[in-house]
Specification:
The chain is an alpha+beta fold and 282 residues long. It folds into two domains: 103 residues, no CATH class; 137 residues, no CATH class. The chain has eleven helices and eight strands. The chain has a six-stranded mixed β-sheet. A two-stranded antiparallel ribbon has the order 4-5.
Length: 282
């Protein structure tokens, strides 16, 4: 169930459904359409006896906030609360009796709240459209702790989006002279194995919410062609917000580790991440 407290909203399912509802609501969809979509897309959760109540609680709360609480949804929630069905789920999951009592108070209050009239429907939030700070193919350089230049390559730039992400590959460039286009094209991706890192290529989605604080550390050295398109929605790469920590300092820490520990045997090149495979299988 992924609960971290007795509150209605203190579990993963509620948070996911409530968040998804208002993402769609802010995109302009009407409440009935959103509800239908969420029900269709979350059948596995709805059919999970340990988690289904959280789905209906989130949907009911979101509809109520929009002043469009569906009677069938309300009746479903009312039955769950009044029969003690949700409390029984908690007991079967071996929750502490003190927590179950707290949960009952929360449920009763939640049901009472749903039966009141909300003064005004929740307003739709206008999404702020942002642009990434780097362009696809940008070759970025920065100073390392040892005084040498390091480097990273921008593999993707998500334009006209809510966050303005860049996909950035940090390289093993570590040289006294400012790297050239050729240096970037022939660079290896940094693979970290210091501390508890297990041969992880440093290729990450960068969210520039604190870019202004680090912009002075970064210089665009050149541009290379990136022939591969990266889809952030289906990406397995992690997300970062601190360029100085997760792009620059990891280079310093990895090279410092290699003074006493062999580097990773895993290798990945910038060419592999920028050039499409020309081989064909017949």
């Amino acid at each position: 169930m992924g609960a971290w407290g007795t509150a209605i909203s203190s579990n993963d399912t509620y948070a996911d459904i409530y968040g998804a509802f208002f993402d769609l609501y802010n995109d302009g969809l009407d409440v009935a359409e959103i509800s239908k979509k969420l029900i269709a897309d979350n059948q596995e959760t709805i059919n999970d006896k340990d988690d289904c109540n959280n789905f209906w609680f989130a949907l009911a709360k979101a509809q109520w906030e929009c002043k469009q609480l569906d009677k069938d949804i309300f009746d479903r929630v009312k039955k769950v609360v009044e029969t003690g069905a949700d409390l029984e789920v908690w007991r079967q999951l071996e929750a502490d009796e003190k927590d179950i009592k707290k949960r009952k108070v929360v449920l009763d209050k939640f049901l009472a709240n749903l039966q009141t009239e909300r003064p005004k429907a929740k307003s739709r939030k206008k999404k702020i459209i942002r642009q990434p700070v780097f362009d696809k193919g940008d070759c970025l350089t920065f100073k390392l702790e040892n005084g040498n230049y390091g480097g990273a390559v921008v593999l993707e730039a998500i334009k006209d989006s809510e966050f303005g992400h860049n996909l950035i590959a940090t390289t093993r460039i570590n040289q006294p002279n400012k790297p050239t286009k050729n240096d970037f094209e022939n660079a290896e991706v940094l693979v970290i194995n210091y501390a508890s890192w297990d041969n992880k290529p440093v290729v990450q989605w960068y969210l520039p919410i604190r870019y202004k604080q680090t912009a002075h550390l970064i210089e665009k050295a050149d541009t290379i062609d990136v022939h591969i398109n990266y889809d952030i929605k289906n990406s397995m790469n992690g997300f970062i917000a601190d360029f100085d920590i997760w792009v620059i300092q990891v280079v310093d820490q990895q090279f410092k580790s290699e003074e006493t520990k062999p580097r990773s045997t895993t290798k990945q090149t910038i060419k592999e991440l920028t050039k499409k495979n020309k081989w064909k299988l017949w």
